[in-house]
Amino acid sequence: MKHLIIPVLSLFLFFNAQCQNNINFSAQDNWGGYVNVFELPANGGGYIFGSPWDVADLKSVVDSAGNSLTLKPNFNTYSDNPGDAFWIDSVTLNGNKSLEASTYVESDSAFNGQDLSFSGNVLSNTLDSNYEAKFFIKALDPANNYQDVFSGAKTFDLPASGAFSVSALASELTAGLLVQYGFAVIGINANPVDEAALGSVVIGNASPSSININFSAQDNWGGYVNVFELPANGGAYIFGSPWDVADLKSVVDSAANSLTLQPNFNTYSDNPGDAFWIDSVTLNGNKSLEASTYVESDSAFNGQDLSFSGNVLSNNLDSNYEAKFFIKALDPANNYQDVFSGAKTFDLPMSGSFTVSAAAGNLSPGLLVQYGFSIIGRNGNPVNEAALGSVVIGNLISSTISLSESPEMLVYPNPSDQIIHIRTDVNFSNYRIFSAFGQVVKLGAYNSSIDISEIPSGTYHIECYNNNTRVIKTFVRR
Question: Rounded to whole angstroms, how far apart are CA atoms 68 and 62?
Answer without folding.
Answer: 6
